[in-house]
């Protein structure tokens, strides 16, 4: 190995240690609002976007740590690519199962591009669906074979009838491959 190559490897290793030290932990409250939704803190808890009224009566947004724990993932900021292919909105306030009421949203979450490549978003929706009494892999299978019937069954089951409070979503199950 040449000395120049060795020096390059040493510099790369040293810079990666410095970068890791400067990045530190992900704390939801420290994240910019533009990347808050679909992020996971170092603690393993989901970040969520909240709004509040400031002293001037204007609506402002802040990133907060929820009580929703993701078991197999931490220190994660969702990619713009996954946000796009899964059809989710990074400006969503709170955590809600309302998306499950929209056939187009379910179609995007169940798409191969989302379901097979975006485990963070899929994990969230597996849990949101479970909280509403729906098994997302089954819903996705029905959605692929007969989208209209899948939505009728979802609505008739009473699932996703009301937004779910984030405090009820403790413990995240791993997404199931289909």
UniProtKB/TrEMBL annotation:
Keywords of this entry: Signal
Alphabetical list of InterPro entries matching this protein: PAR1 (IPR009489)
Keyword Translocase set for record: no
Signal peptide bounds: 1-24
Pfam name, any one: PAR1
Keyword Signal: yes
Protein name according to UniProt: PAR1 protein
